[in-house]
């Protein structure tokens, strides 16, 4: 019997990556940089988890002179501000099927948790806009990228969620859309439901316990298989 479901955010709860990409580009333009991340490039860059790490990797790969960490941090803050504004204005919606699944889990008494590489302000912006200001009360645990030392595919963020839940990995299942996320959850000893998403459509999700084409496949029947 599964006692908790731990959700990834980007690509899983919502197709946020396109909004992240636009927010990055607005931050670059705002800072007078001529960087423009198009969709194909961004798909490549998504292999690097974490916004600051992604920018540093891009600078390194492009052969440009390295940016000092404080410049990267300032760019990342500006990007988060743009993202938050876009989320607040309702430009991001939950994927079809997600809210119904969250409601069904709550009715069943299954706990909800989040384990994401994204930062807390991003989660707050998305979920308060999508689920209302009381969203936090629905989740027993919220483990974000800025709370752990190592981002996915390291298991840290899932281990933190499990500590907050006070449950063993065997009592929980993770929902993920990416290879890095799947590896992270597996490294924490979790079983995984993988859902295909727009930006990670080609990710190797072998090793997931269940793979679904979309979030509308997330049901209590699927959960009952565990
Ligand atoms: Mg994801």
Describe this structure in words.
The protein is an alpha/beta fold and 226 residues long. It folds into two domains: 4-15 and 93-223, 3-Layer(aba) Sandwich (Rossmann fold); 17-88, DNA polymerase, domain 1 (Orthogonal Bundle), CATH 1.10.150. It has nine helices and six strands, in the order βαααααβαβαβαββα. A six-stranded parallel beta sheet has the order 3-2-1-4-5-6. Helix 8 (179-187) links the parallel strand 4 and strand 5 (191-195). Helix 1 (17-30) crosses helix 4 and helix 3 (51-62) packs across helix 4. The N and C termini lie close together (7 Å). The mean pLDDT is 94.
Short overview:
The chain has helices at 17-30, 39-45, 51-62, 69-88, 98-108, 120-131, 156-165, 179-187, 220-223, and strands at 4-7, 111-115, 141-143, 172-176, 191-195, 210-212. By secondary structure, the protein is an alpha/beta fold. The longest helix has 20 residues, at 69-88.
């Amino acid at each position: 019997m599964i006692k908790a479901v731990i959700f990834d955010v980007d690509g899983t709860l919502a197709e946020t990556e396109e909004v992240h990409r636009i927010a990055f580009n607005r931050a670059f333009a705002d800072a007078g940089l001529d960087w423009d991340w198009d969709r194909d490039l961004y798909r490549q860059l998504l292999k690097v988890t974490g916004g600051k790490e992604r920018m540093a990797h891009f600078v390194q790969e492009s052969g440009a002179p390295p940016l000092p960490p404080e410049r990267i941090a300032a760019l990342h803050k500006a990007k988060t501000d743009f993202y938050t504004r876009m989320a607040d204005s309702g430009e991001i919606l939950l994927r079809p099927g997600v809210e119904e699944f969250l409601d069904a889990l709550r009715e069943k008494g299954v706990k909800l948790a989040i384990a994401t590489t994204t930062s807390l302000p991003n989660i707050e912006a998305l979920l308060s806009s999508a689920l209302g200001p009381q969203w936090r009360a629905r989740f027993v645990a919220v483990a974000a990228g800025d709370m752990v030392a190592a981002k996915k595919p390291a298991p840290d963020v899932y281990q933190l969620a499990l500590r907050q839940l006070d449950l063993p990995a065997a009592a929980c299942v993770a929902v993920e859309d990416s290879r890095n996320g799947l590896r992270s959850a597996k490294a924490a000893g979790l079983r995984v439901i993988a859902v295909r998403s727009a930006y990670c459509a080609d990710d190797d999700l072998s090793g997931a316990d269940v793979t679904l084409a979309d979030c509308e496949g997330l049901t209590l029947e699927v959960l009952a298989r565990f």
